[in-house]
Structures are given as structure tokens and as C-alpha cells.
Write a structure and sequence with these properties.
Shape: rod-shaped
Helix content: over 70%
Number of helices: 2
Strand content: under 5%
Structural class: mainly alpha
Largest sheet: none
Distance between the termini: 83 Å
Length: about 70
């Protein structure tokens, strides 16, 4: 445990700790905003369309090979 010699040291540490808490709170709020944005439906369209394109291409190729036989 830290030993304080005067009230100036105590106030200095309290101010530092208050600032650290505010910084941590702002980081949490930023993470919350990032998370909310990442679960929005419009962010899912890219991966879904990419998967659908790949599946469609494979399906089309399969149809081409089946018709040739």
C-alpha cells in the first residue's frame, strides 16, 4: 500500500485514477458502438452474397457436366 506524505500527493493520484477511469469508459463505449455496427443486417449482405455466388457457380458447373453425359 502506498504511503502518502501530504494531501497534494493524494489529490494527484485521485486525479490520475479519475482520468484512467474516464479513458476506460470511453473505450468501452467505443467497443459497444463497434459491436452494434457489426451486427447490423446490412453488414451481412456481403458474406451472404459471396457464399451464394460460390454456390451458384458450383451448381452451374455441376449442371454443365450432367448435361454432357
Amino acid at each position: 500500500m502506498k504511503q502518502y506524505n501530504n494531501s497534494k500527493e493524494i489529490n494527484h493520484d485521485l486525479k490520475r485514477l479519475r482520468l484512467e477511469r474516464q479513458i476506460a469508459w470511453e473505450e468501452i463505449k467505443g467497443l459497444k458502438g463497434d459491436f452494434k455496427e457489426s451486427i447490423q443486417p446490412y453488414n451481412w449482405f456481403g458474406p451472404i452474397l459471396s457464399s451464394a455466388k460460390q454456390y451458384g457457380i458450383l451448381y452451374f458447373i455441376r449442371l454443365l457436366f450432367k448435361k454432357k453425359k
